[in-house]
Amino acid sequence: MKLDYIYHSGFAIETHDTTIIIDYFKDSSETAYNEGIVHDRLLNKPGKLYVLSTHSHPDHFNPEVLTWREKRPDIIYIFSKDILDNHKADSNDAIYLDKGEVYTDDTIRVEAFGSTDIGVSYLIDFNKWRFFHAGDLNNWHWSEESTAEEIEQANTDFLNELEYLHNRVKSIDLTMFPVDNRMGKDYYKGAKQFVELIKTRIFVPMHFDQTYRAADEFEPIAEANGCIFFKITHRNQSFELI
In order of start, what are the domains of the chain with their CATH numbers? Predict the structure, then answer.
């Protein structure tokens, strides 16, 4: 089994017979549209194919994914309900989940947890592993721009969602979580709070486009909290999961 980094918050989890694509925004090619790991390989790979989107922001949901049915009519789409509510897809296009709702079949189990923006985050049980994709769940504060009240509210909202998750999940094998330096000072505060509360074996940063070095700044904090840190250096990077 392996984890593929596509771009931004987009990942794929794959085994020999199953592929799960999460929060597709752009393919992995830096020079050509619709070229890269998804179009060149994953959409042509035999086996089950799941496409998950945590919310309707365009950097997490590209409606182009619905056209993939033309090549792969067997795709199972699992979207957050705000994608339907915001008329980004129709009711018969996907399975829609709100916080607290679950999709399960004989291959995967997907449970929707909360977000501090729109949509949801996903806990995915697959192949005896437990994955967490945060979507836009984060402590979204801008220390140099936000007021003290706004920062306090962001912190409270995030800790409430984190506590909700912690009450149901004591440990996670692999977490994909925002480490976005566009927030300025303390940009990895939410990630730090996450790994301090939720036991995480492997931590993977996301939501940083290509500012790889800034994401790497979180590595010592992740390791200090018992995590293996996957350092992303380029699009279309794969990590073996053992």
Answer: 2-240 (3.60.15.10)
